[in-house]
UniProtKB/TrEMBL annotation:
Domain Gfo/Idh/MocA-like oxidoreductase N-terminal, residue spans: 5-123
InterPro entries: Gfo/Idh/MocA-like_OxRdtase_C (IPR004104), Gfo/Idh/MocA-like_OxRdtase_N (IPR000683), Gfo/Idh/MocA_oxidoreduct (IPR051317), NAD(P)-bd_dom_sf (IPR036291)
Sequence similarity: Belongs to the Gfo/Idh/MocA family.
SUPFAM superfamilies attached to this UniProt entry: Glyceraldehyde-3-phosphate dehydrogenase-like, C-terminal domain (SSF55347), NAD(P)-binding Rossmann-fold domains (SSF51735)
Xref: Pfam families: GFO_IDH_MocA (PF01408), GFO_IDH_MocA_C (PF02894)
Keywords: Oxidoreductase
Superkingdom: Eukaryota
Protein name stated in the entry: NAD binding Rossmann fold oxidoreductase
Amino acid sequence: MPAPIKTAILGTGIGVHHLHWPLLKSLPSYFEVTTILERKQTGVAKALTGGTVKVVATLDEVINSDVELIIVATSDDTHFEIIKKILNAGKQHVLGEKPLTYHAAQSAELQELAKAKGRVLGVFQSRRFDGDYLTAKKLIENNTLGSVTSYEVFYSFYRPASVAFEGAAPPEGDVHWKDNPALNRGNIYTIGAHTIDQIYTLFGMPDKILGRTWSVRGNGVQDSFEATFIYPPRPGTHIPLCARATTNLMSPVDPQLRFVVKATKGAYVKYYEDNQWYALQRGEANADTYGTEIKEHWGTATLVQPDGSFKNEVIPTERGDYRQVYRELASAIWANDPSKNSVQVSSVIQATELIELAHKSAKEDRYMFKGKDY
């Protein structure tokens, strides 16, 4: 195996604390984090790393260092310009947090720039490696449920305006960027970048798109959304496939729904979120149980029997593994071959186009039609 890849992380937000830092530290044969960019130099990076890495205040310091890979985990609105600057320098490979950009055209520009500069551009679509999603995907691809007619993915919370964002109030006088409508395009981008991406990965481009967005917290950010995608009937049914992604921040449900898949021979219902985020918080990235789910949280398939009766079967949740994003990225960098990433930028561009179209549908209060609007 080649030497570990010298890596810098841009940002010190919750995603770095709960995802990138513990994931990278769990793969010492693949990555060596040497640098963290912390613009305000408030000591957050030092506290996180125990003072084991260099902390810098400017992007130029990172680009002009000997790091080989830069993880861009800054606020979503900054991704395009930062990644463009890194790639134009031509020295480092890049992994961009999701959403890679707010616009499919910008992501396409970055893809072409990376290709021209001979650098690998990856995207942290970690929830393609959620155990619950992998389970639903397996049931669909194995035809266990028959031809799918309805696919719903939920990522909802109960987080009214009285609850501080992500569990902690910002410093007095500050507004978290996710609560600032000038910086945050809404959860159709931040969360839809996962759930709508999953729909695209399963089913591709739809025939019709209908979106709806609204604000629960009352701060101008469209924090809740529904995006519906209509596809032609799948083999074995005359019913068009309806795929829907939903996020609602006023969802007082316990446990929260995750998936409802209905098909001609059965259905699959799943509650509870993939627990990798929480396992990483607990420092369990290399535990034997990482990515697994307790039996009490497994989903249920209802299967139609030959006599027309129903049989319920508890379905073990597939093992998820966010580390796979990084393992593939390392292989791509060592070989300088982006095709080794299963998360291809081209697929992210298409999923971003779906998000943009659903957002446009919400603003114009109408369907978007294939062949007319896209």
